[in-house]
Amino acid sequence: MAVRKADVVERVYARLKRRAIEFGFAPGEKVKEGVLAAEFGVSRTPVREALNRLSTEGFVTFVPNRGFYCRKVDTDQIAQIYAVRAALEVWAFRCACAATPEGDLAAFHARWGGKDVVAGFETLDIYDSRFHSGMAALCGNRVLLQELREIDEKILAFRSLELPDIRRRDQMLAEHGQILSALVSRDAAGGSAMLERHILNGAEKAIAAAGMKFGTPDRA
């Protein structure tokens, strides 16, 4: 059966997006279409179409007459993305405190309140992402969840850089417990303040970790 062009593009796009998200290309590195086409066993056309999509999503940059380049590590942009994430999650938290049925709050607490909950995830950054997205989902706003998913993709690499530190891990788990307690007690004011500090503190550590791995990040 012939493989549809759209399927080839989608497959190439998925592989390139994962690589771009995780900085499989070095920041600012030229992304060579011909090399990728040979690696994936496809023509340059699906590679170019996939890179165009990634360019609109901010994972690569297109420079006219020069080609595509991996996104750079931009300190200000990282901070701004985390700030938007904090604003959206705080709004979702307040909505969840006001309107989530008791049974759903109890189920969420049972799912995420156990001491060994982290053991059920392959990596700490996946656990962290699922905890935050699950809590935001309690507000029932699908548009907000889509925005948070897109934000999560843009900062995934930075979250994975800052979380492996054991002290950061213990701090994160303690803060999750405090936020969870505020949620089930419907403490919208106290919990949202903790959640905002938690996310923005993560931003500071992510920026520092990116600087250590990639060198001094750019500033816009």
TrEMBL record:
PROSITE patterns: HTH_GNTR. The lineage of its organism: Bacteria, Pseudomonadati, Pseudomonadota, Alphaproteobacteria, Rhodobacterales. Keywords: DNA-binding, Transcription, Transcription regulation. Residues 6-73 form the HTH gntR-type domain. It comes from the Bacteria. GO terms for molecular function: DNA binding; DNA-binding transcription factor activity. InterPro entries: GntR_C (IPR011711), TF_FadR/GntR_C (IPR008920), Tscrpt_reg_HTH_GntR (IPR000524), WH-like_DNA-bd_sf (IPR036388), WH_DNA-bd_sf (IPR036390). This is Transcriptional regulator. The keyword tRNA-binding does not apply.
